Amino acid sequence: MSSTALLFPGQGAQYVGMGVSLAQELPAAKQLFERADEVLGYRLSEVCFQGPAETLHLTNRSQPGLFVHSMAAMERLKQQFPEGIERCKYVAGLSLGEYTAMVVAGSLGFEDGLRVVQCRGDAMQAAAELVDSGMVSILGLELPDVEQLCNDARHEQEILQVANHLCPGNIVISGHQTACDRAAAMATERGAMRAIPLTVAGAFHTELMRPAVQKLEDALAGVTISSPKIPVISNVDAISHSHPDELRTILVSQVCSAVYWEKSIRLMIDGGVDQFFEIGAGNVLKGLLKRIDRKMPCESIG
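The chain above was modelled as a monomer; its predicted structure follows.
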């Protein structure tokens, strides 16, 4: 029998208009956006549906927006591919998407998850505003070359490191903006196809996010976390965890730790998954999957 895995996108996938068709077509999806507006005390639905883009791209708006949109997209999956849920063997989310994965796995409630995600977004936005920093996707270089690029572009006390191991030939680096700019300029000289600055507020998955940790710890301490009913593959180490205290620790450490996405996908494939579903905004994860295993089927539901 076929085994499936559900994948949930992270920050950067947001776009103005996301969720409009879901809310129009599916009452359950509309209710999720309405609940989010009530829980958060502001009109997140309007930000997702109407923008403006500069507001939606703020970390403390894009993170809760993507979380709710992915949960709303789950309602479409239930209608179009119920077998995708019935045969689900693993769930995983890219950075922020790991929170959605935990809700779908029954480890975290929707409203608790939303509150934590809002806190995470606020804390990471505040941390990003403390120092000029960013992230750059390096296309066409392998890991040792990217690590050397970071070493050569980083000056004195600057931070610049690998943040996301996405797929072969696509590795994201993160750190001080001056170091990111140097690395982007040097990358093509060293054989990279492209160096693409990402639309994010700062250097996520580095120590520059350390100021966000305590606030996230406090938020997670205030919610109930249960053992997941479906294994959630962690970004931090590309394995699943089941103890609630361990899950809290993993989610906190994720903010400053690298994301091992390619390794996570390979673990799921090796575990017998032969059908993936990308649930939420865009189709970035589908594209990454094709670079990891071009024959593996993936449906984008958003």
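Residues 59-80 form the longest helix (22 residues).
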